């Protein structure tokens, strides 16, 4: 049984997903594509040697009776309309982050999905599919370190030449926001954003780094460093302090070299090799679940919570105050479908 | 394009390969199976929901015009005849180790393949597909540690209840024999086998552990420990000493825990999780290469060299002498096809 | 040349210093002791086989013309008077922490010492003598990680049965306060104290753990965890994030064991083995410097700054606000004598 | 109580010992020195500000009634006569390695000491005083890894410009010979020496590296790499494989740095910082034991065994054969005094 997939948006990430579905993963086939730039859609059909129809726009693709499920990898501001259209068509949809560009947009998707009575939306928070984070969550759930009390985290990029404004929060820290609540199965109640001494390598007009403090409903305290021009590499760290022990996210496996009076191992410099396997697992699990009529990845509700939290982070940064994070009750609809590893 | 595969032998490893081709990998389809026990073949067709014909024996399967390529995962003593039959039929064949149960048998396969004028045989030495060994080889080839002079290796199983006689050499050390010559792109010239103090956990009538010393054409010296009841876990170690530095095979990535006055990470206890990814890569690369009409995995020649070396190890063990390893010149046929990472 | 030392207070730490001066270190001799409990003073003279006079009180000991230098290891509330008396007598004095029990008391000592015109007081902040912290400071000073921007620190005790009230701050975090400003050669400007979810192993009526945030004059931001019932061991962590790299305090050297499916090394459970060498170095360096007429350890000014900072921490904890740390200008007297590694 | 020490030979190591006894250690005083070069003896008396008599030769120094104990740090070929003279004078003597330049010379010292009826000789094998080796021995003795079966060792120098001929064996591997039998409390029965591919950095006319195989009475098998121009640093490795687990000699504690896409820690380049603490402990323990009339360091018997083993290594190297190591029964005199940690 093969899942017939239509892809809306054939930019970098769209092409990556098309390639992995076609050449690496099992059980999916790209049978429809579209892009605001039709030449780009045609090019990928040719390059990947797809047997796929090219649609004039996302709505036409969603409506096509040949399309079983939709992948939304178009420009961020268009996500909301294509996800809503997929819900309206009753088709499973995998949407790259952001689910929508505003919390209100996310909420509209949540409301539409709840009203439709069927969970159809999966959001592309790929860290949940990383072996390291899964092993860390397993360690917590097996009670190896007792009850979590604190987390010490860091998200570091070697550099981020295209970043500006609040992108360290909206584009980098956003991953921490999703993964940490998934890890803890807990929600945030407040956030504080501290601006340390600015690195001389910061982008013009942009603060770098941040120290962000989150509090959860259970009283767990998180300090997370976000440093997007750290110079030395791409490095994601997560330490969970429990009341009987402490667990750290694994370092990527690496050859250990003794050379030039140093004992060393390589640190990655790009996020791609760090999370490439996670992307494969993410899409494979989405295909497998969708073929079974299930849905177990990050939900529209998760996308909404992340969006509300990002907004609170920005307010905390601008006000230099501790900002509460208020969320409505999570619909039971989502609680029952909660993802587990 | 899909590679239509026939599988001879649906025991444990046969079923594993059928499962991964059907559910995990891309580009292959199981369309034919056979087993000495027909019920077992029928069972796997049902369990994996295959659209596959069940053949009365391996020869019938090989002859079927529907079968593009053959996977031999039957009982070891039958490997030679099915591989020879595949060569005779001009079909690509992936054969689990051993290629044949004797060096002479391997040599017959090599001769048949050379005579056929086309490389068709791939042998299942899966360590070559392990990310760790590939990273280690890359480190060597990038000249990060200079010219290799020595290797210190260890192959350790937590325990091996089914082992007897010379199986630590024929079934465990055989992997080291293949991977180290691949790593060094060098051949062995002699072997010596030392028997240390016997562990109290050794199987009845069986020596455990061994310290095996290999010398290569380039004068590289290898010491390799083989210890199949080490109690603590499944652990494969490889350290390459170059003339400017030293490189170690990566430890598997693992959560680091601080608990009960210990800083610790888990060691695997089974070989399956250690090499599960390597099996996936192995079969995927075989499918991909076969679809392109290429062949770049471990060759029949590699299978033959390993078989000759195992024989020398056994003679060295029994005689307690240093035994030379004499090999005929490698046919140019194979040298040109040499696998590269 | 031998430094003739008088020790005021022969409790646990006093006896330790007497023992190391007599049996381990070079260049010092205990020639005078006193204790509020005269039997205890007599006992140590006998146990350590000292050729030492027993004085009726600290003031008599300080006045004795035979005493070259004074060690104050009496009950905390008596430190101030004996240090002031030593200054009045013009004698070098090594005082265990706290220098005085209040910031005002510390300030009186600073003022008296400045007025005396000669630096005589050394305070027992032994972490500055730890090889690990010295190596970390060397790494920073050699510019290996660029300009420091952030510090992530942790002070963890396995348990602390004798602790109550604010002792995690006054008795544990006090060490962090001293060592981090020494490490950074910078001063604090504000502090915030966060109380995470309380561990179920916390002492009755006492919060455990704390997350303490310090800001320095240079804008460096420090987050420090203080967790005195962490269950797993005694563990001091310090990570300095610079603008080009990151450096971690060394883990203590330890045998690495592979056993029972774990790769592990021991974590200490007591602070004594962690800092025993630092104590030896501390007292040896004090003896060596004193014999040369120099003074290069933690000064009375350092003791005063720490006291002011502790007070600010307590206010921050109680108020749940960010509290500024205001210090008068450091007298030039101290700046010239600043300790360097 | 002070041990009055006479030092024969004020070259590099002699000066080091004089300095540490005078400035770092406790309980010893240099009151007599001599050297074949009298100016050198005078210079050290002045530099270290010693209150010491300069003797015309070692024999006069040994005979002096002021000298309680003797340190022999003269040229190797003179060790035997000064140790024998110290025994004849009934004085404790600490002799740097080698105890004598031949096995016969060592045997003459053993015989003289046994005949004297009192153990007086300590040989300077300083690795026994290293915290790392002591921790490793403790791990074995606590039965944490079960019964030792194999050892994998390496002795590596960054380079060794002054080395020639068999010095990698006589000057470097000699340390392994002593420490491994101390670690295992076992004796050697045979040795084999393998010469791997020669490093391009080897000294003219000298083999570098060696792989040396030792067998013990208990059947433990040791492989030890000796590589004195390894380029990357000074590195001593020791892994003990027991029948339930494996233990490694600790790596020296070191700052861990993340920089330039590497996670690294420094490797030492010189043996001095690696074993400086061991030297201090060695001489302090010798002073302490001597003052108590005890003797618990490496004995003359140990020096003799090492000398016999070195001779067997050289024969094994030259003959390329497995050479038995035959030793007379150890006199009970020494067995009773066996060193323990």
From TrEMBL, chains A, B, C, D:
Its EC number is 1.1.1.18, 1.1.1.369. InterPro entries: Gfo-Idh-MocA_inositol_DH, Gfo/Idh/MocA-like_OxRdtase_C, Gfo/Idh/MocA-like_OxRdtase_N, MI/DCI_dehydrogenase, NAD(P)-bd_dom_sf. It catalyses: 1D-chiro-inositol + NAD(+) = scyllo-inosine + NADH + H(+); myo-inositol + NAD(+) = scyllo-inosose + NADH + H(+). Pathway: Polyol metabolism; myo-inositol degradation into acetyl-CoA; acetyl-CoA from myo-inositol: step 1/7. Pfam families: GFO_IDH_MocA, GFO_IDH_MocA_C. It is an enzyme of class 1 (oxidoreductase). Residues 137-321 form the Gfo/Idh/MocA-like oxidoreductase C-terminal domain. SUPFAM superfamilies: Glyceraldehyde-3-phosphate dehydrogenase-like, C-terminal domain (SSF55347), NAD(P)-binding Rossmann-fold domains (SSF51735). GO terms for biological process: inositol catabolic process. Residues 3-125 form the Gfo/Idh/MocA-like oxidoreductase N-terminal domain. GO terms for molecular function: inositol 2-dehydrogenase (NAD+) activity; nucleotide binding. Keywords: NAD, Oxidoreductase. Involved in the oxidation of myo-inositol (MI) and D-chiro-inositol (DCI) to 2-keto-myo-inositol (2KMI or 2-inosose) and 1-keto-D-chiro-inositol (1KDCI), respectively. Belongs to the Gfo/Idh/MocA family. Homotetramer. This is Inositol 2-dehydrogenase/D-chiro-inositol 3-dehydrogenase. It comes from Oceanobacillus oncorhynchi. The lineage of its organism: Bacteria, Bacillati, Bacillota, Bacilli, Bacillales.
């Amino acid at each position: 049984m093969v899942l017939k997939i239509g892809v809306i948006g054939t930019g970098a990430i769209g092409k990556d997903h098309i390639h992995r579905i076609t050449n690496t993963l099992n059980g999916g086939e790209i049978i429809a594509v579209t892009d605001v730039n039709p030449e780009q859609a045609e090019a990928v059909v040719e390059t990947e040697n797809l047997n796929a129809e090219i649609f004039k726009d996302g709505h036409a693709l969603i409506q096509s009776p040949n399309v079983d499920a939709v992948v939304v990898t178009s420009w961020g501001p268009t996500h909301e309309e294509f996800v809503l259209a997929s819900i309206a068509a009753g088709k499973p949809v995998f949407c790259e982050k952001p689910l929508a560009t505003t919390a209100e947009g996310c909420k509209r998707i949540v409301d539409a999905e709840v009203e439709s009575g069927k969970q159809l939306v999966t959001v592309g928070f790929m860290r949940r599919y990383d072996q390291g984070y899964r092993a860390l969550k397993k360690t917590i759930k097996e009670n190896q370190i007792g009850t979590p009390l604190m987390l010490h985290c860091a998200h570091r990029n070697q550099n981020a030449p295209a970043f500006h404004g609040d992108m360290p929060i909206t584009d980098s820290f956003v991953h921490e926001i999703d993964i940490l609540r998934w890890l803890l199965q807990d929600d945030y109640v407040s956030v504080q954003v501290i601006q340390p001494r600015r690195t001389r390598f910061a982008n013009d007009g942009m603060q770098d780094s941040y120290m962000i403090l989150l509090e959860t409903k259970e009283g767990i305290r998180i300090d997370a460093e976000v440093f997007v021009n750290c110079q030395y590499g791409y490095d994601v760290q997560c330490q969970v302090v429990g009341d009987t022990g402490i667990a750290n996210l694994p370092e990527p496996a690496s050859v250990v070299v003794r050379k030039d009076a140093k004992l060393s191992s390589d640190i990655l410099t790009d996020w791609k090799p760090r999370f490439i396997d996670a992307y494969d697992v993410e899409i494979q699990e989405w295909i497998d679940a969708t073929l079974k009529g299930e849905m177990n990845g990050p939900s529209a509700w998760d996308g909404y919570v992340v969006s509300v939290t990002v907004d609170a982070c920005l307010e905390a940064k601008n006000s230099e105050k501790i900002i509460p994070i208020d969320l409505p009750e999570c619909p039971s609809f989502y609680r029952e479908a909660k993802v587990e590893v």
